[in-house]
């Protein structure tokens, strides 16, 4: 299986792309002598993915080995791939779109590119809170957005909830990335679902008032700067810190030792820590719909779920799959079981609230 660079597609006209993509996809994998000899014996599968992780290629290879179905991969950003599928229309070779964050799955859903599917395997193994109620898309990994703090400046007992971060006691102590970041938008969308627009805006204004600097950088940058003492705490996804801990870079290893993880909203009557997903759905004009469903079901297998957990520092969605040792060292947590599909309709409002509150 050989991925096709999105740059190829972005440099050619739409008309040419519609015709040429089929030729390109048909040729994918023909030059890879390491593929299983039965690849393609049971047909093909065309995956459009915005997950840019080299480790995912092993998942595709495992699926081919198990089923004999050849995987063709097209990579790009979520927005580029959604637009491409819309442009290709009924001629699209896309069978599956895979992306990260419920907000991007919501965009694809609103664009009307998914078709609902019914699968007892998916419906049994994936919790209802991590899939679209109509079967348009399904989550295959969990991503917890947690409080990360400088161990020398913050005691865990000082921390409690996301809501508490608007308390003036944190003034000048919080650093965060921009409001344009989709992970932050989804978090605020979840707060709207929990508290409504008015209370969420009140929270957002208090949160922004506690910033130590204007929002900047990415999750990696926040972790580095918390470790360096630029700010006392931040919000970030757990897998970023796991990568620090596993890094060969002594600077990152040292940063990982200085930064602690706190799972918010764990009290008896509290909703739990905000989680997001990597997920995917079947395209409504998928030429290989049966193979597409097989692949989504394969992603819930213990083999695939363990690979997600061990290979990419994400939490599995299937119960009982062992965690990566570094993630396990962060501790267990209660996750928010609100259906994340409900966050999608709140996203536009979330951005408006963030902007009004001065979260740049």
Q: How many strands in all?
A: 8
How many domains? The number is 2
Distance between the termini: 41 Å
> Into which percentage range does the β-strand content fall?
5-15%
CATH topology of the largest domain: D-Maltodextrin-Binding Protein, domain 2
Main sheet summary: 8 strands, mixed
Query: What is the number of helical segments per DSSP (H or I, 4+ residues)?
Result: 15
Share of helical residues:
40-55%
SSE topology string: HHEHEHEHHEHHHEHHEEHHEHH
Spell out the CATH superfamily of the largest domain: Periplasmic binding protein-like II
Average pLDDT works out at 90
Radius of gyration: 21 Å
> What is the general shape?
globular
The class by helix and strand makeup works out as alpha+beta
Polypeptide structure, described:
The protein is globular. It folds into 2 domains: 184 residues, D-Maltodextrin-Binding Protein, domain 2; 157 residues, D-Maltodextrin-Binding Protein, domain 2, CATH 3.40.190.10. The N terminus is likely disordered. It has 360 residues and is α+β, with helices and mostly antiparallel strands. The chain starts with 5 loop residues before the first helix and ends with a helix. Strands 1, 2, 3, 4, 5, 6, 7 and 8 form an 8-stranded mixed β-sheet that branches.
Question: What's the short story on this structure?
Answer:
By secondary structure, this protein is α+β, with helices and mostly antiparallel strands.
């Amino acid at each position: 299986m050989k991925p096709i660079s999105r740059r190829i597609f972005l440099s050619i006209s739409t008309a040419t792309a519609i015709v040429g993509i089929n030729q390109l996809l048909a040729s994918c994998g023909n030059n890879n002598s390491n593929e299983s000899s039965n690849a393609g014996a049971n047909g093909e599968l065309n995956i459009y993915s915005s997950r840019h992780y080299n480790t995912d290629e092993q998942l595709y290879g495992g699926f081919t080995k198990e089923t004999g179905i050849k995987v063709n991969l097209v990579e790009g950003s979520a927005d580029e791939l959604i637009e491409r599928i819309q442009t290709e229309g009924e001629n699209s070779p896309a069978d599956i779109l895979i992306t990260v964050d419920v907000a991007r799955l919501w965009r694809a859903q609103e664009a009307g590119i998914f078709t609902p599917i019914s699968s007892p395997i998916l419906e049994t193994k994936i919790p209802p809170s991590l899939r679209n109620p109509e079967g348009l898309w399904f989550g295959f990994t969990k991503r917890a957005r947690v409080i990360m703090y400088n161990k020398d400046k913050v005691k865990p007992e000082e921390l409690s909830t996301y809501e508490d971060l608007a308390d003036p006691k944190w003034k000048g102590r919080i650093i965060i990335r921009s409001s344009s970041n989709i992970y932050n938008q989804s978090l605020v969308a979840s707060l709207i679902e929990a508290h409504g627009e008015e209370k969420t805006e009140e929270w957002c204004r208090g949160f922004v008032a506690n910033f130590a600097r204007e929002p900047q950088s990415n999750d990696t940058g926040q972790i580095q700067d918390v470790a360096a003492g630029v700010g006392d705490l931040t919000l970030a996804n757990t897998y970023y810190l796991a990568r620090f801990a596993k890094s060969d870079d002594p600077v990152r290893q040292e940063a990982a030792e200085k930064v602690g993880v706190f799972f918010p909203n764990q009290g008896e009557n509290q909703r739990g820590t905000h989680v997001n997903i990597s997920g995917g759905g079947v395209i409504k004009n998928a030429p290989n719909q049966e193979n597409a469903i097989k692949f989504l079901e394969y992603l819930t297998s213990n083999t695939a779920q363990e690979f997600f957990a061990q290979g990419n520092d994400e939490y599995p969605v299937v119960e009982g799959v062992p965690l990566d040792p570094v993630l396990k060292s962060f501790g267990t947590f209660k996750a928010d079981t609100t259906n994340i599909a409900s966050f999608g309709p709140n996203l536009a409002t979330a951005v408006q609230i963030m902007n009004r509150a001065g979260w740049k």
